[in-house]
Amino acid sequence: MQINISEAKANLSKLVNMAHAGEKVVILKNNIPLVDIVAHEAEPTRKLGLLLGQLDLPNSLMDEDDKINEMFYGSDR
């Protein structure tokens, strides 16, 4: 369906319902197509755990480092 912008202003709710139902709605200005009204498509959600089992972390990952502790706390610790 093609409709002039002035008519679209008066019938916006109807046009939105038509686009949601799957009909192609094109808004024209001076008989030149400006925009299409299309139904919204939700973005896919992120999938958690995508790299599960693909990373190998060393057991010493959380061990404290004496040099780093000295930088934070000084040598009087």
Provide tags for this entry.
77 residues, alpha+beta, three-stranded mixed sheet, 3 helices, 3 strands, elongated
Give a description of the structure:
With 77 residues, the protein is of the alpha+beta class. It has helices spanning 5-10, 12-20, 66-73, and strands at 2-4, 25-29, 32-37. A three-stranded mixed sheet has the order 1-2-3. The chain is elongated. The termini are far apart. The model has no long low-confidence stretch (mean pLDDT 90).
Unreliable spans = none
Instruction: Give the percentage of residues in beta strands.
Output: 15-25%
Termini separation comes to 77 Å
Roughly how much helix do the residues carry, as a percent range? 25-40%
**Overall form:** elongated
For the largest beta-sheet, the strand count, sense and barrel status come to: 3 strands, mixed
Figure out the total of helices. Answer: 3
Query: What is the succession of H and E elements?
Result: EHHEEH
Number of DSSP strand runs: 3
Mean pLDDT: 90
**What gyration radius follows from the Cα positions, in whole Å?**
30 Å
| Class derived from helix and strand content | alpha+beta
Q: Which strand order spans the largest sheet, edge to edge or round the barrel?
A: 1-2-3
Question: Would you spell out the secondary-structure blueprint of this structure?
Answer:
Layout: E1 2-4, H1 5-10, H2 12-20, E2 25-29, E3 32-37, H3 66-73
Parallel strand pairs: 1-2
Antiparallel strand pairs: 2-3
Brief characterization of the structure:
The chain is an alpha+beta fold. It has helices spanning 5-10, 12-20, 66-73, and strands spanning 2-4, 25-29, 32-37. The protein has a domain at 2-37.
